Amino acid sequence: MAILSAFALVACGSRSGEAKTAVAEAPAAEVPAVAFNADSAYAYVARQTEFGPRVPGTDAWRECGAWLAGKLKEAGVENVTVQRGEASTCDGTSIPLMNISGQIRPDAARRVLLLAHWDSRPWADHDGDSANRRKAIDGANDGASGVGVILEIARALKGQVGNLGVDILFVDGEDYGPHADSGEDGDDCWALGTQYWLAEPTLDLGAVRAAILLDMVGGRDARFHKEYFSNLYAREVVDKVWKAAKAAGHGDRFDAAVGGAITDDHVYFLREGVAAIDIIESANPATGSFNPTWHTLDDNISNIDRATLGAVGETVMRALRDF
Question: What is the pTM of this model?
Answer without folding.
Answer: 0.91
